[in-house]
């Protein structure tokens, strides 16, 4: 079946879920988690994206994002590509790291915002990574501690969350924490599973009978019709930035970015260029002529390289997205 296009609408709330392939770990240790957060934070600032909630589990993670100007696809492509390359190199592994494409839900901000924050921030507790609220309050791999002021993450919009609970920061944090604690007894879906999550969240706010028929949307019928006009122009993801992709590919092949743009017989360059061409055109939606100019290659050479790129990537590392099954 052809994969369904994502609803990418700047200025609206998106719940993003990324899982490891075959449920394998995508975070082996705190160094992995630290690198992920460092990269994530820098991209939030660079792309002017607000993060409202997040949690890192062992084999998956959740993000609640509101892109202001840049497409969500741009941020996620750059985040997942750079993290996968670094992870594979650090742990001396090859192959895909993430399962299929990332999953994203376009969310009705007014109805689901707080319930999503609570669900995401309780994930470490429900997964058994912490025991009780006291441990969760200081847990470094979840946005809950940032909202409480126990940790920091540049780009996390804590004020947006606290503003729902009180006019002062002190009052907001007290009422926010109580709200999170009230959700502990909820019979939530397994943190490692997302099937049925839309219906469960709708049930929490009493709107289970008013859920959009589109699996990409978390909202009711009115919200569903509200986001329909003009969707066709919004569904095409923006391409990944070529210089950034060049750096990631060069790093994965242990080469300098400059070599990939030169005519040379240095071992590994031809393979790296082929991988770059495949990612830039098949995954990044760039035109062949644009890639040819960027690499200083002929268009015919780029066309030949694309055919080799996919198999080379499968042998080396997860630099690109897999098609959804």
Keyword list:
325 residues; 5 strands; disordered C terminus; 2 domains; five-stranded mixed sheet; Chromosomal Replication Initiator Protein Dnaa, Chain: A; Alpha-Beta Plaits; single chain; alpha+beta
Provide a descriptive summary of the structure in words.
This protein has two domains: 13-234, Transposase IS200-like (Alpha-Beta Plaits), CATH 3.30.70.1290; 242-316, Chromosomal Replication Initiator Protein Dnaa, Chain: A, CATH 1.10.1750. 47% of the residues lie in helices and 9% in strands. It has 15 helices and five strands.
**How many runs of DSSP E, i.e. beta strands?**
5
User: Would you list the SSEs in sequence order as H and E?
Assistant: EHEEHEHHHHHHHEHHHHHH
Calculate the terminal CA-CA distance, rounded to whole Å. Answer: 8 Å
According to CATH, the fold-level topology of the largest domain is Alpha-Beta Plaits
Q: Give me the oligomer status.
A: single chain
Second CATH tier, the architecture of the largest domain:
2-Layer Sandwich
CATH superfamily of the largest domain: Transposase IS200-like
Return the domain count. Answer: 2
């Amino acid at each position: 079946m052809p994969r369904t296009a994502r609803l990418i609408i700047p200025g609206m709330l998106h719940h993003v879920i990324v899982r490891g392939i075959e449920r394998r770990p995508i975070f082996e240790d705190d160094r992995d988690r630290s690198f992920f957060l460092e990269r994530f934070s820098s991209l939030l600032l660079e792309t002017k994206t607000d993060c409202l909630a997040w949690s890192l589990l062992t084999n998956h993670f959740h993000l609640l994002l509101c892109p202001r100007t840049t497409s969500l696809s741009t941020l996620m492509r750059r985040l997942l590509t750079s993290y996968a390359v670094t992870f594979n190199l650090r742990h001396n592994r090859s192959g895909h790291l993430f399962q299929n494409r990332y999953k994203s839900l376009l969310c009705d901000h007014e109805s689901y915002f707080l319930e999503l924050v609570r669900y995401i921030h309780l994930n470490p507790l429900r997964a058994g990574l912490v025991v009780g609220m006291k441990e969760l309050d200081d847990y470094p791999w979840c946005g809950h501690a940032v909202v409480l002021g126990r940790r920091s993450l540049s780009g996390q919009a804590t004020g947006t969350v606290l503003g729902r609970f009180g006019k002062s920061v002190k009052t907001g944090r007290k009422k926010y924490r109580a709200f999170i604690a009230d959700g502990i007894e909820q019979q939530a879906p397994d943190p490692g599973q997302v099937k049925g999550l839309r219906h469960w969240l709708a049930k929490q706010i009493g709107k289970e009978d008013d859920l959009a028929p589109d699996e990409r949307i978390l909202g009711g019928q009115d919200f569903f019709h509200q986001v329909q006009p003009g969707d066709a122009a919004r569904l095409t993801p923006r391409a990944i930035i070529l210089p950034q992709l060049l750096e990631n590919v060069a790093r994965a092949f242990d080469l300098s970015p400059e070599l990939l743009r030169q005519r040379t017989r240095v071992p590994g360059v031809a393979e790296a260029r082929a991988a770059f061409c495949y990612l830039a055109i098949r995954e990044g939606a760039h035109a062949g002529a644009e890639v040819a100019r960027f690499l200083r290659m002929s268009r015919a050479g780029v066309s030949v390289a694309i055919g080799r790129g996919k198999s080379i990537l499968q042998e080396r590392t997860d630099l690109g997205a897999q098609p959804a099954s």
